Amino acid sequence: DGQAETLVAGVTTPTRRVIEAAMMTVGLAPGIHTPSSFFLMIVPNFLGQGPKAFIFADCGFNIDPSAEELADIALASARSAAELLPEPPRIAMLSFSTRGSAAHARVDKVTRALELARARAPELLIDGEFQADTALTPAVAATKLTEPGDVAGRANVLIFPDLDSGNIGYKLTQYMAGARAIGPILQGFNKPICDLSRGATVDDIVAAAVIGLYRERHGAG
Question: How many Cα neighbours within 13 Å face the side chain of 160?
Fold first, then answer.
């Protein structure tokens, strides 16, 4: 009767079926054309400064997003971060290049996505293209950039250029840094949708449900 606030699925259902169900029921949020996913990553001791939370996207759905799709992922991730992180979103568009240090079509895709995202949401703190160390470490950002700005070295939202890098990145962080990885959580929809791994534990299911309810009650999409 329309009273459900969130959907948790995926333990017995492939991702594409969860996406199809979400598209047919709640639909995409205004201004978003690409469904995507993110992980809430909680690193227990980031750079020796204690626990820190990050949004990693897209780590579970879009295999090789176009520049337009990558911009959508960045904007949806900004909304997710605003709902879940204790600090304002600082969004880094990741690449193997930092501000033109390499020339390649894959770099061009990321810089184009940055341009599109900035045009659609000029108020956001979003920058790139950055290598991961430039995005996360102030000392590296200061070395590689003459003007680091508000994102380099301070990013808490990492937008990966494709599913290869995103999936590898979150799993390396989870297993090598001991981070808690909550998700994948779908984003860009009118209601919170969580697409869990088929290996999800009871704790994972409970965490996803709690996050979904929290996002819905704080204006999620």
Answer: 24
pTM of the model: 0.89
Sign of the CA dihedral 166, 126, 148, 102? positive
If one counts the domains in the chain, the total is 1
Q: 80 is in which domain, residue-wise? A: 7-217
Beta-bridge mates of residue 43: 52
Q: What is the CATH number of the domain that holds 74?
A: 3.40.50.10750
Q: Is residue 106 situated within a structural domain?
A: yes
Q: What share of the chain is helix, strand, coil (3-state, %, to 5)?
A: 40, 20, 40
Is residue 220 pLDDT above 80, yes or no? no
Q: What is the Cα–Cα distance from 144 to 98, expressed in whole angstroms?
A: 8
Q: Could you tell me the CA-to-CA distances from 150 to 35, 127, 153, 167, 201 in Å, in that order?
A: 27, 8, 8, 26, 38
pLDDT digits (tens, 9 = 90+) for 77-96: 999 999 899 999 999 999 99
